[in-house]
Design brief:
alpha/beta; 11-stranded mixed β-sheet; two-stranded antiparallel ribbon; 14 helices; 18% strand
């Protein structure tokens, strides 16, 4: 029987694992990509990684995410990560919009989702967790992308795409990467493109807005303004600069655990149509990716993982049933991962990363 999960490792990660074996203590970083409901195919992994696999690990783990990955990070660092992950999955999968929802309607429902996921104690958990430190990626917008107007935003996106096609450094004209980090976290990023980067510490009064900003897709949701303690401006989706990530992390050495729905990461949002835009070797040297196999994905309803197009392509009842099936089926991924790490067979399953990379 074909394994439901592929495990890939960068050269440095592969060497470390061959020397020490596959243990939680080797992983100092956890990465969650943008992708909206694509995340549902990873829910079964999230249900075991922090509630079980990482549970006995000492020391600090940096839990990094943009957009949907940021929402997952906010769940993972709560006192009861399993309950938080299930709240996120249930509420998001059951969200229903009007026939032609406005950005305001979608934004209001996103705030409701955040409140549901955080509950009464979620923010305290995020701020006070000494072992797992959340880092929420968003962008602060400039020029046309700071506008509330849809037509101006359209123009801003077109200009952003044109600048990005020449070089990712062109994004500096329109965006500044902004990282909202839990207090007392030891975390740095290295960007081979040197995109402008700012930091703000998470607090009781800005965590909800930071999460909303991280998932605020231009034209789909409203931008987030007046975030307490952050520089003045309009904040939007962190996936714009860091869609699937092309960064390395520090200052501590250690491996990066990266459950991902695809086996070919796309650095930024505007790189989706640029086949030549691949991540750097340095960014993935110490990364271990957990990716659902093609056979597993083909076994799901419609033979694919969920995505935002499902809101338009399927009526609510059909979509919710489909998404619930996926959320249930992905438990097979978590069970498989826990089995092969417990019996040591995971070392026989690890393969080199399957995508091309740039040399620095």
């Amino acid at each position: 029987m074909t394994a439901p999960l592929n495990i890939y490792a960068g050269p440095g990660a592969l060497a470390t694992l061959k020397e020490h074996g596959f243990y939680p203590l080797l992983f100092n970083y956890f990465l969650g990509a943008s992708g909206g409901p694509k995340w549902f195919v990873l829910a079964g992994l999230d249900r075991v990684l922090f509630p079980e696999w990482f549970d006995e690990r000492g020391g600090q783990v940096q839990v990094i995410g943009s957009s949907a990955g940021a929402f997952r990070a906010a769940c993972a660092v709560q006192r009861d990560p399993l309950a938080a992950i299930n709240r996120l999955a249930h509420h998001y999968s059951h969200t229903v919009y009007s026939a032609k929802p406005s950005a305001n309607e979608i934004t209001v429902k996103a705030r409701e989702l955040i409140s549901h996921v955080l509950g009464e104690e979620g923010i305290d958990d995020i701020l006070l967790n000494h072992r797992f430190k959340a880092h929420i990626f968003a962008v602060r917008c400039h020029r046309a992308m700071a506008s509330r107007g849809r037509i101006t935003q359209f123009h801003g996106l077109a200009m952003s795409a044109a600048a990005n096609a020449v070089s990712r450094r062109g994004l500096n004209r329109f965006y500044t990467r902004h990282i909202f980090s839990a207090p007392d976290s030891d975390f740095t990023v290295h960007d081979p493109y040197n995109l402008n980067t700012e930091r703000t510490e998470l607090s009781i009064v800005n965590t909800r807005d930071a999460l909303l900003a991280s998932g605020s897709i231009p034209l789909v949701l409203e931008g987030v303004e007046k975030i307490v303690d952050a520089p003045e401006g309009v904040y939007r989706d962190g996936g714009i600069t860091d869609y699937h990530f092309d960064l390395s992390f520090g200052p501590r050495e250690g491996l990066v655990l990266y459950p991902h729905f695809y086996d070919k990461p796309v650095p930024g949002w505007f790189d989706k149509g640029l086949k030549r835009r691949v991540p750097h070797r340095s960014s993935y040297d110490n990364v271990v990716m957990l990716v659902p196999s093609a056979e597993f994905v083909s076994s799901l309803p419609y033979g694919k993982i969920p995505d935002r197009k499902d809101f338009d392509a399927l009526d609510p009842q059909t979509r919710i049933k489909y998404w619930q099936t996926v959320l249930s089926e992905t438990d097979r991924l978590g069970e498989y991962f826990m089995d092969i790490t417990a019996n040591g067979k995971i070392m026989d399953e690890i393969k080199p990363l399957p995508f091309p990379m740039l040399n620095d």
